[in-house]
Amino acid sequence: MGTQPPTSVEVSERDREEGPSSSEQLDAGALFVLKSRGSWLHCGYHLTTSIVAPALLSLPYALSLMGWFPGVLCLILAALITFYSYNLLSLVLEHHARTGRRQLRFRVMAEDILGPAWGRYFVGPIQFGVCYGSVIACILLGGQSLKFIYLLSTPKGSMQLYEFVSIFGILMLVLAQIPSFHSLRHISLVSLVLALAYSACTTAGSVHIGNSKNAPPKDYSINGAMQNRVFGAFNAISIIATTYGNGIIPEIQATVAPPVEGKMFKGLLVCYAVIIMTFFSVAISGYWAFGNQTKGVILNNFMVDEKPLLPTWVLLMINVLTLLQVYLQPTNEVFEKWFADPKMDQFSIRNVVPRLIFRSLSVIIATFLAAMLPFFGDIMALFGAFGCIPLDFILPMVFYNVTFKPSKKSLVFWGNTMIAVASTLLAAVGAVASVRQIVLDAKTYSLFADV
């Protein structure tokens, strides 16, 4: 393969051979962002970066809301169900690609399988909200990491959280201009390594503190009245669902060079090998060390009264590794589709100027929201209930049953149906629990609070 990326005309010609509709041929989001040039290993990098994110540092807190057995069981079930559902999505995508209609987006899948209204008014808005919410959460966590580093060197420093969020937003402005998924493959590999590194450091830190003289009393009872404990458990399920959530499986599979058969499965194996090493180690070690005193982000437990419980260099390394992992392409693909001209070259003035303006504007708005809403972790639980559960636990089952029409007497049909129904109930209750927690925290935090 040559070193020069194909032009939009060349990609359009290739798409005609592979079968997408004429509307997809002239789609700038597909031509410029979802370039079908990657290998299964690149697919594994993208999958890992989209799932194994700093949000995993909230898993010990989720366990503290449920206790040992229910918490670990939910972690295991979520891993099994999401691996299964992502593989189902891949099989559906491969089936439609073989029939001459390669679906490049989740909303296109919904339009083709369930009807136009589902893609336009349900899947599209939810997917965009979840992806954009992840950008906001990433900026907030990056700002918190920068503040943590600042306090290590200046314990009585006067800088506020919103200032660090703004600083981190500047870094995101630069990264937002990376043109495509394929051009992110090396950054995705770096993110995979970073995820392994900061997870290992966090696990080691929790184990060290848990065995030290400064270890807090290990109390694994669940705090609060029965009502609060029940709502807390459903809130924890939403947090776990958000942590495992992806919501862009079709977009990632669209980056794979044809033929696509079997490549997503190999990528999922890479991704879930990393998930098992990171999610479970961080969740179990963090909850073991701090019990029901576990905070929303486990790193906050590593300092007490502004005094570090670990050597300063260890805390510095963990936070640097955490803030370096970022991911923006899912929302960029939407902007490219809306505002770019696929008939012009990707790097023409006509396309570069709108890309610079709208990607930058999206990051500026996300940075503002991250600074304004310091309790955004609660909002992410709401996104998990309203977004991640429908996209990752419900729709894959529906898509598979509608596409392949398995016998109503088969285990596959009833297994998929039971998962979809149970997930729908969890999404409804989880949404109520998340809204309730937001209302409670809104009474405690003020806008632009320094937390």
**Distance N to C terminus:** 50 Å
Unreliable residue stretches: 1-24
What is the 3D form?
A: globular
Query: In which order are the strands of the major sheet placed?
Result: 1-2
CATH structural architecture: Up-down Bundle
The major beta sheet can be summarized as: 2 strands, antiparallel
Task: Give an account of the 3D structure.
The chain contains 18 helices and two strands. The protein is an all-alpha fold. The chain has one domain: Amino acid/polyamine transporter I (Up-down Bundle), CATH 1.20.1740. The radius of gyration is 22 Å and the shape is globular. 50% of the residues are buried. The N terminus is likely disordered.
Salient structural properties:
451 residues, disordered N terminus, globular, single chain, Amino acid/polyamine transporter I, two-stranded antiparallel sheet, mainly alpha
